[in-house]
Amino acid sequence: MLLEYPAQLEPQEDGILLVRFRDVPEALTEGAGEAEALSEAVDALVAALGGYVEVDRPVPLPSRARSGDHMVALPALTAAKLALYVAMKDAGLTRVGLARQMKVPENSVRRLLDLDHRSHIEGIEQALSTLGRRLVIDSRNAA
User: Fold this and answer.
1) pTM of the predicted model as reported, rounded to 2 decimal places
2) pLDDT profile of the chain (143 residues), mean per 10
3) Contact, 37 vs 30, CB < 8 A?
4) Which of 53, 60, 88, 87 is CA-nearest to residue 4?
């Protein structure tokens, strides 16, 4: 599951660049230049996807890049947490159900899914293993 979302940068009349994500319309931000806009885009994307998790909505998967798109990758821990959330949903499990299978309190699973909580990656790997999944890390050249 690759969590790298295409973003569109739209110049505004005041020189600011507006950042939009067609796959996550709730993620909107802006920046004074391309570097600032793309840096802010990561935070906006994480916040919007965190909202999906909080209200128990399916996380939209990224579409293919189109000409002119800028790809925005999620931080590794955030991507791992979202992978766990998607795997949990695919298995038809609630937080309580996963906690029961892992033999841990429900608040432990809640923290694993909280995009703002600094979870240990080993906990996410354990939860994924419980679901018959494994975490795979990929490294690529910067674009």
Assistant:
1) 0.90
2) 89 94 97 95 97 95 94 94 96 96 96 95 96 89 72
3) yes
4) 60
